[in-house]
Every structure is written in structure tokens, then in C-alpha cells.
Specification:
CATH architecture of the largest domain: 3-Layer(aba) Sandwich
Number of helices: 7
Distance between the termini: 32 Å
Strand order of the largest sheet: 1-6-2-5-3-4
CATH superfamily of the largest domain: Periplasmic binding protein-like II
Number of strands: 6
Shape: elongated
Number of domains: 2
Helix content: 25-40%
Strand content: 15-25%
Amino acid sequence: MSAGGGPVFFERDDIYLAIRRDDFPFPEEASRTRLFAERIGPVCRPDLATRLTGAAGVSQVVLLHTDTRPQAWDDWRRITGMEAEPTPQQTLEHFYLTLQAAAAGVGVAIAPYAVARDDLERGQLVAPFGFVPDGTSYHLLSRQSPEQDGPVRRLTAWLRAKTSQLEVDSEPV
């Protein structure tokens, strides 16, 4: 098992299955099974959320970015129409580090719901504006169709059961 993102090269990298977001072209030979839509939104420590009253509030806090998706704040602003004045910003290497910084009170992170969900449920983070679809989805990619491969079919059913709540669980928390 290997964590990664970006293009999948089944033969070259000896990959049997991959879960990827459709923000790049998938291999033509890949079987694709949609799992859930990506939803993004600002998250922060609960006490910081009281300062976030629209665009003016967002302009008063440090915006946390991640190297793996440097355009996430711009995407959220475009989708929601919420413009904010330039504000102090900090970029971290990965979403997990960005969420840790948000939970520590460093600032407000833009995050995918699927990544922030556990921290939201524990009350370490809140999502004052909820989450919005960003137009992408996660897919299980495989060399063969799940219908032709029993283990892939069972994994697909299990993943769909586990991710079905991600489609509806994205209101403000």
C-alpha cells in the first residue's frame, strides 16, 4: 500500500488499485468507480470561529494553505463568491499538518470534509461556513472492472458503504 496522488501508471508502478481525485486525467485502460464528491470549507478551532463573520472576519485571521493543493482557498472563494482582503498566510506541507495548525489556533485552514471529518466530530475543529462541492470526486481505479474481479467488487462495496455518509455530512459544524 502506498499513499500518493497524481497520475496512476498501473503497469510501470505495478499498481493494482488506486483511489484518486479526478483533478487530472485517468488512464484510459482504468476501470473507474466513483466513491464520493469532494467538499471543501474553512475549518478552525471553535473559539476562533466566533471571529469569522463573513469576508471581513476571514480577513482578520491567518489563512493556512497546504502545498498539496495551493489553490484551495482560491477555489473556495470562487465557488462561494466570498471575497476577502489579503491577510497573513502560512503554507504547510500537507493537509494533516494544516489541520493540526488550525486545531492549535494558528489560523483557519481550507480543508476537504473527508480529511477534516474526524477532527470535526471530536470538536477539535468547527466549519463555520460548512462545506461546498468543488467539482471533483474521488474514484477507485482498477485494472479490471469490479464486476470481473471478486476482491475488487467486495472492496468497492465496502468503500461505498464507508463513504456514503461523506455525500451528506457536510453542513456547518
